[in-house]
Amino acid sequence: MTRIAAQLAPQRSTQYSNLARDLAAAEVLASPLGPGLEDVSLHNIAGQDYLTFGLPGPITNESIGLLASMAMLGGIFELFDAIGAVAGPLLRPVEAVQPAFIPPDMAATRRYKGKTNEDFTRFLCNMAKYASDFHSSDWSALDVVDPLCGGGTTLFTALSLGADVAGLDLDRTDIESTATFITQYCRENRIPLATKEERLRKLGARRWLFQIGRDDQRRCMLAHGNAGQTGELLAGFGRAHLIVTDLPYGIQHRGPLHGLLADCLPGWTELLVAGGAIAFSWDSTRLDREEMMALVGKVADLEVVNRPPYDRLAHRVDRVIKRRDVLVARRR
Question: Which CATH number is 105-331's, of 3.40.50.150, 2.60.120.260, 1.10.10.10, 3.30.1360.10?
Fold first, then answer.
């Protein structure tokens, strides 16, 4: 067995200081590495928080790649109780770098009201992928959709991982400013970009198609419109392997949230390929997990993944959102 100590991902904002502590173990256990791990637990070593666990064999390129892809982990180290006469704990750095199609700072650079934390967004992407039939596929083979994309954090996060992406939002300002940001960011960072803008007259909507990169290209589709028309607005993109989104936090009562999911989830489910998965987060102080699971089961042909560690993803965000939870479900 090889013992690993993975430093928890540092957070730029004190608002999210406990995010990695709350979610790191779940992310690792949900990954393809999870079934073989032993003694997964949090430890403080020399004033720093680490997630420690045992790998069943030596460190491999595959395990390094998976650990590097974790949203809630930072530096990876091999952990020793002692080496010779030198008492531990002793840490040997393991080179673990996640290749990126575009710089990960694209998601961090984009600022807008109501933005979701980039690390949490990457966590959602990973949890959806791990629950799907495509858990071992390269991101470059996957299509990711965010039907409530706002300012584009999910899209830019999935692009950096290497996926093709598509998103829409009802807020015209959000979509137009996101399209402008993509153009400006690619120009400033000398990333080849081809852009096509369309008007979908039957839907009364606008849509942008971006081809990003030169030889190795990725697609990004943006549309302005209602999430209940996701399939029509994103026609031509193809069916998604993963749907990842953050439900609106401004909803004060159950009724509107029930209405949103009743209107949208059936269409989102149809957009998924067989074996695909959806992951979404919501303010669970107003709608608890049991109620959300019942609602999803009622309105869509989805199988909620509620086995460990997917059943313990609730965490605190701030004084307003005292409890946020994550639900992951697969298309049957």
Answer: 3.40.50.150
Predicted local distance difference test score (pLDDT) of residue 318: 77
**Domain limits of the chain?**
2-94, 105-331
Whether residue 295 has pLDDT greater than 80: yes
Residue of 62, 63, 86 whose CA lies nearest to 3: 63
Amino acid at 297: G
Strands 240-246 and 272-283: parallel
Contact 104, 160 (CB under 8 A): yes
Residue whose entry in the numeric block shows the structure tokens 């993963």: 242
Q: Which two tokens stand for residue 9?
A: 């991902």
Q: pLDDT tens, 49-66?
A: 999 999 999 999 999 999
pLDDT for 185 = 96
Model pLDDT, residue 252: 45
Q: Residues 156, 103: contact at Cβ < 8 Å?
A: no
Q: Is 75 exposed, middle or buried (0-12, 13-18, 19+ CB in 10 A)?
A: middle
Report pLDDT for 15: 60
Cβ-based neighbours of 273, under 8 Å, separated by 6 or more: 239, 240, 241, 331
Secondary structure of residue 112 in the 3-state scheme: coil
Nearest to 8 by CA among 71, 72, 69, 53: 72
- Backbone angles phi and psi of 62, in degrees to 5: -65, -45
**How remote is the C-alpha of 101 from its chain's centroid?**
16
Q: How far apart are the two ends of the chain, measured CA to CA in Å?
A: 37
Core vs surface per residue 170-202: b (16+ CB within 10 A) or e: ebeebbeebbebbeebbeeeebebeeeeeebee
Q: Is the pLDDT of residue 264 over 70?
A: yes
Residue 270 has φ and ψ, to the nearest 5°, of -65, -30
Nearest-angstrom CA–CA distance, 78 and 168: 43
Gap between the Cα atoms of 234 and 230, Å rounded: 6
Structure tokens that stand for 19 in this block: 């995010």
**pLDDT tens digits, residue range 141-160?**
999 999 999 999 999 999 99
